[in-house]
Design a protein that fits this description.
The chain is mostly helical. Strands 2-1-3-4-5-6 form a six-stranded mixed β-sheet, covered by helices on one side. α5 packs parallel to α7. The protein is globular and about 95 Å long. The termini are far apart.
C-alpha cells in the first residue's frame, strides 16, 4: 500500500535538491519518480531531473521515465545528456533496447539533435517499426535540411505494410522537399483523403511558397473551408518570400477584419514583407507599418526583440527618419536592453555609424550589453572601413566574459573580414574551441571575399559538420571570384550527389557567374533554361555582367529586359547596356539607353568612396565635391597621375561619355572617388590605421581604369592598397592585384 506521506514528500520538492530527495524516494513506486521527473522537466529543470534520476534506485527506473527524459533531451537539443542517459540505460536496463516505445523516443532525440547517423542505425536495428518510428526519422532528416533523404525514407515508408503515414509525417516531409516532390506528395494527400487536414494543407501552402509557386499556394489557401492562424501565417509568409508585399499586407488586413488574432510569426512576416518588395507605395507602406506597430504595442508583442527589430528594419527601409525611431523609442513604457538592441539592429546595415553612436549612448545610460547586443554591434562594425571599431568591441566582449561564445566569435570572423583583415578573421577561427556550422561558413565566406579560393577549398574538407546551402554559396562564390570553373562545376554537381542538398537560386546565380565570367556564356544561358525555378534578378544580373565583360550584345538585351520587369527602378540594366554599346563603339545606342533611363526617372547610384584617417571617416564623391581639401587633393592627384603615366599608366577612356573631348574624358576618369580617397590617404600617411596600409571602401564595383591605376600606384608608392568594392576585396601590392585582373 502506498505511504500516505509520499505525495507530500514529492510536492515539497521545490525547496529541496535532488540529494535531499533520495531518502524520501526510498521504498516508493516507479510512478513516484516518473511524476517528479515530469514535474521538474515541465519547469525547465532538466538537469535537476537527470540528477534525481541518476541518484535514485534503479528499481524505480521505468520505461516511461526513460522515455520522458529522452523526450526532454530532444526538446532542448541536449545531445550529450541524451548520450549519457542512453549509455546508462544500456548498462542498467539492457532490455529497453527491444522496446518499441523507448526506441522511438531515442530515434526522435538523436534526430532532433542532428545525430542522424546514429538515429538511422537504431532504426535499422529495430525488429518492429510503427508509424512513429518512420515519422521520427523522416522529421529528423527534414529538420536538418536533408530533403532528399527525407523524401526517400517517406517513399520507403509507403511500401511498408500496415504503416499508413499520418498528418505529421506529411508535414515533416513537405517542410524540406522541392517543388516536384511536393507535387507528388500533394497528389498522394488527395488520394489518401487528407486534403481536409489543416496541418497538411498549411504545409503544402508553405512548400509552394518556398518553391516560388505562390499562385498555387494562393489557390490552395482559397480552397480551404476554414483557416487556422497557421494558414494565414503561411500565406502571408508566401507572399513575403515572393516579394509581393502588398499581397501580404492585403491578407493581413483581411485576417484582421475577420477578427482573427495574430502572433509573433504573423508580425515578423508582415514587417518583413514591407522590406524589398515590389510595387509598395512608400507613403502607404510607412502608414501601414506604423499601424501594425501600434497593434504590436497593444498586444505586447513589441516587447520581443525579434518583433521590435523587424519593425525598426521595415520602418527604416521605407524611409522613416531615425529621429522618429528615437521618439517612438522614448514613448514606449519600457526602454530596456531589448529596445536599445532593436534600434541598433535596424541601423546596423543601413547606417553603421548611427548604430555605433546608439551603442555608445546605451553604455552611457548605464545598461549592460548582452550577447545579442554585442553580436549586432559587431555586425555594424562590419560596415566600417577599418577594423578599429571591431577591435574595440572585441576587447569589451572579453571583459564582459563572453570571449568563448560561439555566436560572438562568428560575428568577429565576419566583422574582421569585412573590414579588410582576413588575418584577424583566421586568428579568431583558429582559436575557437568549439565551432558550429556558422563558424565554418563565415570563414569560407571570408576567404571567398578576399579572393582566396584555394584556402576555402582546402578548409572545406576539414569541416566536421554536414554542410548546408550557405556552405555551398560560399564555396561557389569563392570559385567565381578566382575563375575556378572546373572546381565550381564539381562542387555544384556534388551538392545533390554527395550531400543531398538541392541547389537553390543563389547556387544557380553563382554558377551562371562562374560560367559567364569565363566566357562560357552559352553554357550559362543553357543553365538558366534548365533551372527548376524562375530565375530572379540576381541570376539575370550575373548573366548581364558576363555579357558586359565579353561583349555579348544580343543576350545582354534579354537580361536587361528581364531586369526591367523585375526591378524597374534599378539602374543596373541601363548602365550595363550603355557600357556594352560604348565598349563596342556604338555611342548612339549608348546615348539612347541613357535617355531612356532618364525618361523613366531611374537614377544611377553615385559612386562614393570612404577612407578612415585618424578617427574620422572621410567620404568622397566623383570629383571630390564638398570635401574641404578638394583643391589640394586634386593638385596632388594630378602630380601622381603624371608620375604613373611615366611608368605605363594609360587612362581607359572607352567608357567615358562619348560626346565630350578626349582630354575631358581623361579628367572625368582622374577624379573618380577612389583615386581622390587614395591621394587623401597619402597626404595623411601618419594618421592611417591598419599598419599604414591604405584601406578604401567603395559602394559600387571598381572600374577598369581605377583598377589599373591602383595597381601601378601600389608599386610606385610602395604601399599595400586595399579596396573593398560592392563585390569583393582587391589587395593591390607591388603593382599586382589579388584578383589577378579577374573580377
Amino acid at each position: 500500500m502506498r505511504c500516505p506521506t509520499t505525495r507530500a514528500c514529492f510536492v515539497s520538492i521545490r525547496s529541496f535538491s535532488s540529494s535531499n530527495l533520495l531518502p524520501a524516494l526510498a521504498g516508493h513506486e516507479p510512478n513516484d519518480l516518473l511524476n517528479e521527473v515530469r514535474l521538474l522537466s515541465s519547469r525547465g529543470q532538466l538537469h535537476q531531473a537527470l540528477s534525481l534520476f541518476y541518484n535514485s534506485s534503479p528499481e524505480l527506473h521505468s520505461l516511461q521515465t526513460y522515455a520522458t527524459l529522452f523526450n526532454e533531451c530532444a526538446r532542448h537539443g541536449y545531445l550529450q545528456q541524451g548520450l549519457r542517459l542512453h549509455h546508462f540505460m544500456l548498462a542498467h536496463f539492457p532490455s529497453c533496447t527491444a522496446d518499441l516505445f523507448v526506441t522511438n523516443h531515442l530515434i526522435n532525440m538523436y534526430s532532433k539533435c542532428g545525430y542522424l547517423q546514429y538515429a538511422h542505425q537504431l532504426f535499422d536495428a529495430m525488429p518492429k517499426r510503427n508509424v512513429v518510428s518512420w515519422t521520427a526519422l523522416v522529421s529528423g532528416y527534414a529538420q536538418c535540411g536533408r530533403g532528399v533523404e527525407s523524401f526517400r525514407l517517406f517513399s520507403d515508408m509507403l511500401a511498408e505494410r500496415d504503416c499508413r503515414p499520418n498528418d505529421f509525417a506529411f508535414t515533416s516531409v513537405l517542410s524540406s522537399c522541392d517543388y516536384l516532390c511536393g507535387k507528388q506528395l500533394h497528389a498522394l494527400v488527395l488520394k489518401m483523403g487528407l486534403g481536409a487536414s489543416v496541418y497538411v494543407t498549411n504545409s503544402l501552402i508553405t512548400m509552394y511558397s518556398k518553391s516560388y509557386k505562390v499562385e498555387e499556394a494562393w489557390t490552395l489557401f482559397k480552397s480551404l473551408s476554414c483557416w487556422s492562424l497557421v494558414s494565414w501565417n503561411s500565406m502571408i509568409a508566401g507572399f513575403q518570400l515572393a516579394k509581393l508585399g502588398m499581397h501580404a499586407v492585403g491578407v493581413f488586413v483581411k485576417m484582421h477584419h475577420e477578427g482573427i488574432g495574430f502572433d509573433r510569426a504573423t508580425l515578423l512576416s508582415v514587417f518583413s514583407s514591407l522590406c524589398g518588395s515590389h510595387g509598395i507605395d512608400i507613403n502607404l507602406g510607412l502608414k501601414f507599418c506604423f499601424q501594425v506597430y501600434c497593434l504590436s504595442v497593444k498586444t505586447g508583442f513589441i516587447s520581443e526583440v525579434e518583433v521590435a527589430t523587424a519593425f525598426m528594419k521595415a520602418y527604416s527601409e521605407l524611409g522613416g527618419d531615425v529621429s522618429e525611431f528615437y521618439h517612438l523609442f522614448l514613448e514606449t513604457s519600457c526602454q530596456d536592453i531589448i529596445f536599445w538592441t532593436s534600434m541598433i539592429t535596424a541601423l546596423a546595415e543601413p547606417d553603421p555609424a548611427k548604430a555605433f553612436f546608439l551603442y555608445r549612448r546605451l553604455l552611457r545610460e548605464g545598461l549592460t550589453p548582452d550577447l545579442y547586443t554585442f553580436s549586432i554591434v559587431l555586425k555594424a562594425c562590419a560596415g566600417f572601413v577599418t577594423e578599429q571599431h571591431a577591435l574595440a568591441i572585441h576587447s569589451q566582449v572579453i571583459k564582459a566574459g563572453f570571449k568563448d561564445e560561439t555566436v560572438l566569435r562568428n560575428a568577429l570572423i565576419h566583422a574582421y573580414a569585412r573590414c579588410g583583415s582576413i588575418a584577424l578573421s583566421k586568428k579568431v577561427f583558429e582559436e575557437m574551441g568549439c565551432r558550429d556550422l556558422v563558424s565554418w561558413n563565415s570563414m569560407l565566406k571570408a576567404y571567398g571575399l578576399h579572393g582566396k579560393a584555394k584556402e576555402a577549398l582546402q578548409l572545406f574538407p576539414q569541416m566536421d559538420l554536414k554542410p548546408d546551402t550557405a556552405t555551398f554559396v560560399a564555396l561557389l562564390s569563392a570559385c567565381s571570384h578566382c575563375g575556378m570553373v572546373e572546381e565550381g562545376l564539381r562542387i555544384f554537381d556534388s551538392m545533390f550527389k554527395d550531400h543531398g542538398i538541392i541547389p537553390q537560386l543563389d547556387h544557380y546565380a553563382c554558377m551562371v557567374d562562374i560560367l559567364g565570367r569565363a566566357g562560357r556564356i552559352v553554357e550559362a544561358e543553357e543553365l538558366i533554361c534548365r533551372m527548376p525555378m524562375e530565375p530572379d534578378s540576381v541570376v539575370w544580373s550575373a548573366l548581364l555582367g558576363s555579357c558586359r565583360k565579353h561583349g555579348e550584345t544580343q543576350l545582354a538585351k534579354t537580361a536587361v529586359s528581364k531586369l526591367k520587369q523585375m526591378e524597374p527602378e534599378n539602374s543596373l540594366g541601363y548602365v550595363q547596356m550603355s557600357n556594352i554599346y560604348s565598349s563596342g563603339g556604338r555611342f548612339n545606342e549608348a546615348g539612347t539607353i541613357r535617355k531612356e533611363m532618364d525618361g523613366s526617372g531611374v537614377r544611377k547610384e553615385p559612386g562614393l568612396s570612404w577612407i578612415e584617417v585618424g578617427n574620422q571617416v572621410h567620404e568622397f564623391a566623383s570629383g571630390g565635391r564638398h570635401h574641404p581639401q578638394r583643391e589640394a587633393i586634386c593638385t596632388k592627384l594630378q602630380g601622381l597621375i603624371g608620375q604613373l603615366k611615366e611608368i605605363g599608366y594609360v587612362p581607359e577612356i572607352s567608357l567615358a561619355l562619348h560626346d565630350i573631348e578626349e582630354e575631358h574624358k581623361q579628367e572625368q576618369l582622374f577624379h573618380h572617388s577612389e583615386k581622390m580617397a587614395l591621394v587623401f590617404a597619402v597626404m595623411n600617411e601618419g594618421k592611417l590605421h591598419g599598419g599604414g596600409n591604405v584601406i578604401i571602401m567603395k559602394n559600387i564595383r571598381i572600374c577598369v581604369d581605377c583598377h589599373n591605376f591602383m595597381k601601378l600606384a601600389s608599386g610606385f608608392l610602395q604601399k599595400e592598397i586595399i579596396v573593398r568594392d560592392s563585390n569583393r576585396f582587391h589587395h593591390f601590392k607591388d603593382s599586382i592585384c589579388s584578383c589577378n585582373d579577374y573580377w
